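Tokens for chain A. Residues wanted.
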């Protein structure tokens, strides 16, 4: 089955999806994106993703490419046309195509909107059973990590370093403290309490993080929002990450050191179960 993608209002076979070489997303990374999970053909945490998209656009003084209703239709159509039962929808908005100037183009520019599906196994991801390995690496990103921009070179380098070292994710570190994963939020568990960095310009406010905070609260699991060091992480009882494409993923090794005896611990297992229960309901 040929994948159908969305490009500026049109549904096209993926090989026909094209944008201008002058697109500011391509030339300047002047664009924002969202990744929403799909389970059983239904979107997970979709409202939160659209809320964050609105914030990202506003922070960069970019126009909405269309109405929210039209975005809803686009997501639904992509699921339908690709018969997507489980996976993700990636959507990206850029400031549009214009002659190359660093300042915003003069006059009206039409934003570029593209989206596509990617089928993936999310619920029965085998990594969730074994747990994954992470490495630590310096956080090379800019100072507005709260905006979900397509400027992802530093995260791509971090993830590549992780893969080359036999790990699946890299935790980025600044001044000795873990900021977040290259494409996920970072957590440790100590004495039954979950610790994760507080929201600020230094990390992305994850939609999965937000859902998890609510679920944990309902379940009586304490989450402390503060930054933690690499040393603390190495001495933690458990560690995990969250993202739209991983949900709640146990970590069993950091920089080659086993965490929690090398097995996913009880707190992360419980939190993943709670998240999946809600997402598949
Ligand atoms: N990444 N932090 C960063 C830097 C991220 O890129 C992501 C998501 C998250 C988690 O956010 P959420 O729970 O809303 O997915 C945190 C997506 C999945 C990606 O780029 O593929």
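Reply:
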């Amino acid at each position: 089955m040929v994948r159908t993608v969305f490009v500026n209002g049109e549904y096209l076979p993926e090989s026909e999806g094209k944008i201008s070489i002058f697109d500011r997303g391509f030339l300047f990374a002047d664009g924002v994106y969202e990744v929403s999970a799909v389970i059983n053909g239904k979107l997970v945490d979709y409202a939160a993703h659209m809320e964050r998209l609105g914030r990202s656009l506003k922070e960069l003084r970019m126009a909405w490419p269309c109405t929210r209703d039209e975005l809803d239709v686009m997501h639904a159509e992509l699921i339908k046309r690709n018969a997507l039962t489980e996976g993700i929808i990636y959507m990206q908005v850029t400031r549009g195509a214009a002659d190359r100037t660093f300042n915003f183009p003069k006059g009206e520019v039409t934003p570029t909107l593209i989206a596509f599906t990617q089928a993936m196994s999310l619920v029965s991801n085998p990594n969730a059973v074994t747990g994954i390995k992470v490495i630590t690496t310096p956080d090379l990103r800019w100072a507005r990590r709260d905006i979900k921009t397509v400027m992802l070179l530093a995260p791509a380098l971090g993830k590549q370093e992780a893969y080359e070292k036999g790990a699946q994710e890299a935790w980025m570190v600044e001044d000795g403290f873990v900021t977040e994963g290259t494409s996920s939020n970072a957590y440790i568990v100590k004495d039954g309490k979950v610790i994760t960095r507080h929201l600020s310009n230094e990390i992305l406010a994850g939609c999965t993080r937000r859902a998890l905070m609510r679920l944990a609260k309902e379940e009586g699991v304490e989450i402390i929002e503060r930054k933690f060091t690499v040393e603390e992480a190495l001495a933690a009882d458990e560690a995990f990450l969250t993202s739209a494409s991983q949900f709640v993923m146990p970590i069993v090794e950091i920089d080659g050191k086993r965490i929690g005896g090398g097995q996913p611990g009880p707190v992360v297992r419980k939190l993943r179960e709670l998240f999946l229960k809600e997402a598949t309901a």
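DSSP finds eight helices and 15 strands in the chain. Residues 46-59 form the longest helix (14 residues).
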